[in-house]
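Hello,

I think I submitted the 2-keto-D-gluconic acid job twice by accident. Can you confirm which output corresponds to this input? Input:
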Amino acid sequence: MHAHPVTPSESTVLQVGPLKPSLAETLRTEYGAAVLPEDATDRARFLTDGAARVTAVVTSGRTGVDADLMAALPNLGAVINFGVGYDTTDVDAASAHGIGVSNTPDVLTDCVADTAVGLMIDVMRRFSAADRFVRAGRWPAEGNFPLTRQMSNSSVGVIGLGRIGGAIAKRLNAFGCTISYHNRREVADSPYRYVGSPVDLARDVDVLVVAAAGGSGTRQLVDADVIEALGPRGYLINIARGSVVDEPALVDALVHGRLAGAGLDVFADEPYVPAALFELDNVVLLPHVGSGTVETRAEMEALTLRNLDEFLATGRLVTPVVEPGVRV
Ligand code: 8YV
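Support: Only one job matched these inputs. Its output is below.
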């Protein structure tokens, strides 16, 4: 139970964008939260009547809060994000206004790392394609499924050796993989080899795993040159954000056999996936499910509410990425 008193007339928690149904329900019943209307006219009316009462927003990486919405909410003190990635929220604008931003780190690390390993095994061993082969009745008709590629003992480059990248590396280490990485900065005391550029990393490895945060700093970090360097025997895994990869270049390389395959949980324009990929058996396509287990989503929900409770009670956040009240 979250014992926050509901005082909508003085201060309002605002839900921006769809949220996990149980979280939306708790926000509504226990915090008296309002939901920002999607429709532009309704939204304008809501903001005219109630913008000044909003002190905290709860949103997710799917929606976020842009600079315009922040400017329209004069008493906003915190954007509380369900999810570790907050690239849809304008953190520079938040800092400039002294608006805090929190996310949900750590609690989803294991599930997202599991997803990366699952995608890597699936695309290299072609399990999903082999499953389709069995279901289509092709085994009796065509005999053995074609041979695939060994995943264990392969060499892997991780782009972004943060919490999730580190958890992926740890798992792959147990599979006998040789791990190197590229990161904004070399990670002190890392057991893995640092490579100064994504192209040089891609040239060296069988598999490139994208685990870097999204946002302007990593936009198309994996560009056409990186994909070419990975080459026709290379695989790309992305569990981070579609924005980190030049998606048209990736699709082109896959369609024309200049890349061996890809395992993708994230896309540039979700929920839309380039239709050209549907035709290919050397890609595994997931609908952004990396953190999507009952256990992890419950922990993300609990951490979101802990941030909200802390903010409403003390003006601080439990897991801030931008501290509230500090104008930068
Ligand atoms: C989704 C994720 O954000 O945490 C992240 O950054 O990508 C996922 O966990 C989650 O579905 C909420 O949008």
